[in-house]
Amino acid sequence: MSFIVLANFKSNLLASELKTWIDQVKIVASETRDKINFIIAPSTIHLSQPVSNWPFELSAQDVSPYPVGAYTGAVNARQLKELGVEYSIIGHSERRRYFHETQIDIANKARELITVDITPIICLAKDDIIPQFAALEDGLTDKCIYCFEPPADIGGIVAAPSDLIEDTIRLIKKYTKAPVLYGGSVTKDNIVSLKNLNIDGVLVATASLKPESIISLIKNLSHAI
Ligand code: PGA
């Protein structure tokens, strides 16, 4: 399995800025495609951007916990599927904190995604692990990807301590055979040491926004693989 790099743009970038980003980053993404599974998660309104020979896989940042129907404002899993979306982040700590999402909401989102063959990428702080796995429906746990992201380590330049990452990834892997990523202050300077931990990939937000920053990160990573 290739190492996963998930660029989560959060609520950033205008369509024109995303186009510039893609034009600049697609070359290194193509060159490293055999080693790195490069997934980008733009805002929902930009999910129709893909072009032919696209060197990225496409992720949403969220999905409705409900099926098709009378749920004003919600974007459902079938609509994401129609756009070619292959993954969706769910349960990011910002969604849990600012939008008050519960473990049950997130479990419902996972079910909606899996129904249409989109892989959920479930973000977990350490305290979410036990209740989130308890809330997921039987048989779905191995159909997701997980991302350990300690909220206190998001948005800076220093990642969480290695022993915390390794211990927590080990704990998550007791519940599932699925890949587990790490997210929180991943940069071009720490990507190589993070890669040597027991992780299957990284979620990068701040350091993914500027093309030159993510290009350096991908180059440093690819030299270490
Ligand atoms: P960051 O965000 O890369 O800006 O620290 C990571 C995350 O939200 O998990």
Architecture overview:
The protein is 36% helix and 17% strand. It has helices spanning 15-31, 77-82, 93-98, 103-115, 129-135, 162-173, 191-195, 211-224; strands at 3-8, 36-41, 57-60, 87-90, 119-124, 145-148, 180-183, 201-204. Strand 6 (145-148), helix 6 and strand 7 (180-183) form a beta-alpha-beta unit. The structure holds 2-phosphoglycolic acid. 2-phosphoglycolic acid is lined by residues 149, 154-155, 183-186, 203-207.
Quick take:
This protein has helices spanning 15-31, 77-82, 93-98, 103-115, 129-135, 162-173, 191-195, 211-224, and strands spanning 3-8, 36-41, 57-60, 87-90, 119-124, 145-148, 180-183, 201-204. The protein is of the alpha/beta class.
Arrangement of strands in the largest sheet: 1-2-3-4-5-6-7-8
Oligomeric state of this protein: single chain
Number of strands: 8
Q: What is the number of helices?
A: 8
Bound molecules: 2-phosphoglycolic acid
Distance between the termini: 12 Å
Provide the succession of SSEs. Answer: EHEEHEHHEHEHEHEH
**Principal-axes shape call:** globular
